[in-house]
Write a structure and sequence with these properties.
Oligomer: homodimer
Keywords (chains A, B): Hydrolase, Metal-binding, tRNA processing, Zinc
Subunit structure (chains A, B): Homodimer.
Strand content of chain A: 15-25%
Strand order of the largest sheet of chain A: 2-1-3-4-5
Protein name (chains A, B): tRNA-specific adenosine deaminase
Structural class of chain A: alpha/beta
Shape of chain A: globular
Radius of gyration of chain A: 14 Å
Cofactor (chains A, B): Zn(2+)
Enzyme class (chains A, B): hydrolase
Largest sheet of chain A: 5 strands, mixed
Chain lengths: 148, 148
Amino acid sequence: MRFASHMPRALAEARAAAARGETPVGAVISRGTEILAADGNRVRELSDPTAHAEILVLRAAARRLGTERLAGCDLTVTLEPCPMCAGAISLARVARLYYGAADPKSGGVEHGPRVFARSTCHHAPEIYGGIAEAAAAALLRAFFAARR
Amino acid sequence: MRFASHMPRALAEARAAAARGETPVGAVISRGTEILAADGNRVRELSDPTAHAEILVLRAAARRLGTERLAGCDLTVTLEPCPMCAGAISLARVARLYYGAADPKSGGVEHGPRVFARSTCHHAPEIYGGIAEAAAAALLRAFFAARR
């Protein structure tokens, strides 16, 4: 099998984030089957508005590789990235983006500013949405239902 | 005088970034006359694709205040923020954004995805562009001319 999805690991990171009281989103940076970094949302824990799962794994993988460019690396995330994260994915030159549930309210890929679709976007990854989206969406629904 | 611009400090941070071999952009987070954080681009130094001046000061100020929301705080930056930084400014609930030079190639405020202008943008700051833009633009021009 050529392609092994890292979505199960991303979903595990999302569940761990929910258990910490964070919005349940998880992300993985990989190179082929190798996982370079995996984490979930830590905005509240770190008092950091930028500590989305995607930003945390981009930073960790870049630090690990000693370069700010993640050429040849893929990002798997349980939710459609927001505009901030889409911008970071472009800056980091991520090769492929795999995501779970679409996010009509806050997404920045197929919704809102559609960051990768702009003529000024210097690098867009290959994009594959809707992967295990039922599982990712169920996690988010359960989390927000419990907080109401 | 009610308003004291923090642009001189942001420009000093941009010059310090250039001296480190980084793209010369500097940023300040302030609450009135008080500076909460000031820094310049550190993408290469930190091997961090997200280490734009804006992201560094947003993170530093949030850590200092112990909250991921910077309500009542203002961001001053020498260049029009990119889509990543515009997204982060929205997430952090920054009250006012002051910037210097416009960035037709990579900006995300008045160019490209125009992040704050979207109906899905949950928070947009008050925006004041073109502040000391000649000085900010000259810094960038000199930097890129020297690298060619």
